[in-house]
Automatic annotation (TrEMBL):
Domain ATPase AAA-3: 47-184
Superkingdom of the source species: Bacteria
Protein name listed in UniProt: MoxR family ATPase
SUPFAM superfamilies from the UniProt entry: P-loop containing nucleoside triphosphate hydrolases (SSF52540)
Species in which this protein is naturally found: Rurimicrobium arvi
ChlI/MoxR AAA lid domain ranges (all copies): 248-308
InterPro entries: ATPase_AAA-3, CbbQ/NirQ/NorQ/GpvN, ChlI/MoxR_AAA_lid, P-loop_NTPase
Length: 330
């Protein structure tokens, strides 16, 4: 079975994506895979959750990406907001509240930080579940309802959330409904020894790069990239592989709650965006194995922690082997 290359395949805006990754690499060292996945979620029109111990660079990556898009100066076309989640945070601190206007003798709604293009929800699992749920409607429905009024969000709304491991003191596990709104959950991890030594030697330059990072893409560029991602070709057999993986998670002995249909849709959108990040106008078999775990793991409930990674990886491996036998792109 061969994939016939279409002469009318969508234009791959490789230069724009490279500009973005090059800007980020001025600050973030040794994290190419994580950077690619963050950009993948941005282009797929979803949201991303990053988890790891404090001090590994999660917040810096989020700030760097936003700054490369939103720009360093006020008045940039893309609005970036950062919210530090704490136990005393209230839903109105995110959504906004009504205040009384003495001049017009009426209440007016003052919008909160959720009304932006890129939101950094820092240490999201340190806030109470009630505050966490305030994000749910805007992430799922692209709108915010206050009283009887519904406010649509901007055309570009991208949430980058960070969290520390839930075993740490003073944290609240995110509810399953909210976890499902994140297209990917990635683990940042520590850099290798050589990269860490490089960071120590050049930390002043790296900090300076973050302060002076330039805006390289406009709002229109990001929206065009998202449209290009939706036009990336995905073969019928790869769509079938996504369906098989999603369905197999529901019948695996070590998985208590499998993936939903919405998970499969997010998987396909991430595959298309990931192919674009890699400079292709079509999805290949290897893309499935590359990002499947990041897309699905946080959506599943496992019967035991010991078999967690093995359960999902065995499902993914089974479909990867099937696709390899088909030789779609050979």
């Amino acid at each position: 079975m061969e994939l016939m290359q279409n002469e009318s395949a969508p234009y791959v805006p490789t230069e724009k994506i490279q500009l973005l990754t090059q800007q980020i690499s001025k600050v973030i060292r040794g994290k190419q895979a994580q950077v690619e996945r963050v950009i993948t979620c941005l282009l797929a029109g979803g949201h991303i959750l990053m988890e790891d111990n404090p001090g590994t660079g999660k917040t810096v990556l989020a700030r760097t990406l936003a700054q490369a898009i939103a720009g360093h100066y006020q008045g940039a076309h893309v609005a970036f907001k950062r919210v530090q989640f704490t136990p005393d945070l209230l839903p109105m601190d995110l959504i906004g509240t009504h205040i009384f206007d003495d001049r017009n003798n009426e209440f007016i709604f003052k919008k909160g930080p959720l009304f932006c293009n890129i939101l950094l929800a820092d240490e999201i699992n340190r806030a109470s579940p009630k505050v966490q749920s305030a994000l749910l409607e805007c992430m799922a429905e692209h709108q915010i309802t206050v009283g009887d009024t519904t406010y649509p969000l901007e055309q570009l709304f991208f949430t980058i959330a960070t969290q520390n491991p839930i075993e740490m003191e003073g944290t609240y596990p995110l509810p399953a409904a909210q976890l499902d709104r994140f297209f990917m959950k990635i683990y940042f991890g520590y850099v290798d020894e050589q990269t860490e030594m490089d960071i120590y030697r050049n930390y002043l330059n790296i900090a300076h790069n973050l302060e002076t990072l330039e805006q390289v893409l406009s709002l229109e560029d990001i929206l065009q990239l998202q449209q290009s991602a939706r036009e990336v070709f995905i073969h019928e057999e790869i769509i079938r592989a996504v369906s098989n993986i999603v369905r197999d998670t529901r019948s695996h002995n070590d998985i208590q709650l499998g993936a939903s249909t919405r998970s499969g849709i997010a998987f396909i959108r991430c595959l298309q965006a990931y192919a674009l990040v890699k400079g292709r106008s079509f999805v290949i078999e290897d893309d499935v194995q590359e990002i499947a775990f990041d897309v699905l793991d946080h959506r599943l409930l496992y019967r035991n922690k010991e078999g967690r990674q093995q359960a999902l990886r065995s499902v993914i491996r089974k479909e990867a082997e099937r696709l390899a036998r088909l030789k779609i792109h050979q």
